[in-house]
Design a protein that fits this description.
alpha/beta, TIM Barrel, 8-stranded parallel barrel, two-stranded antiparallel sheet, 11 helices, 10 strands
Length: about 290
Amino acid sequence: MHRADTRIVLGLHRSGHRRGALIKALDLGIDAIDTSFSYRDFTSHATLAREVPDLLDRLTISTKVGFFPTRDGPRHSLDPLRLRTALERTARDLGRTPDLVFLHNPERSLRGERPDRARTMLGEACAALDDAVSEGMCGAWGVASWDPSPLPALLDRTIPRPGALMVRAGLFVGIEALDASAALAARWQVPGGALWGMSPFGGDAANVGRAGADPRLFVRDGGCSRVQAAFRVACRLPVVSALAVGADDPRHLGELLDGLRLTVDDRMIRRYVELLRSRRAAVSPAEVP
């Protein structure tokens, strides 16, 4: 089997959590899933335990905490007690401890706070997850950030360092987010093998077909699809060791796996990033010369 530099993680954000889809993923060699305490209206973990209890020990499970149910809908919080309570419920609902828990979009609670207050909030939340690992409530912890731009300036030596970082990846990410992700990884000294990507198609694989330019411009191989090329490029923009992607259709997963064999044209990637940076604004692949 081809050994790619990036592994696929099956994301369950919009998944039906169907047993057949998870079995097919395992058959394809995809043995990692990524979910969240808040997915499926806060029932993702319990649904997995009900639908595939016999598969959970065969899967590497990453999840996230940070959003909580309220009468007015999901609300974000970095309160350490609420995070700990969510971790306890996660293990109870799954029937096992998760392998990795991400602090889910911490920037949601930090915007508008004074820098000193935001630093304290972030530090306490990270410490709560760090303690959870020490106490055996999860195997490791990390940070998943949709918009990491507020985070690098807050970091100092008092804030625990995560074992993994998940950020957006691919041709649908603006230069501000790409630069902020790089800055966050550097400030936290997150090794390349611990950097994860997410949302390679900007939330919908159909976006690739609507893009003006062909993502295949960024790969050296012929005979591939636009989706395969966009997915392969997402593995290198930024360079990630794992890429979480949602796909209930085994054919789609198989297509993505085949896409990992493609060779990325690093010169074109560099040219693209330089173009983004020169304009200092998010652009679509349609504007790549």
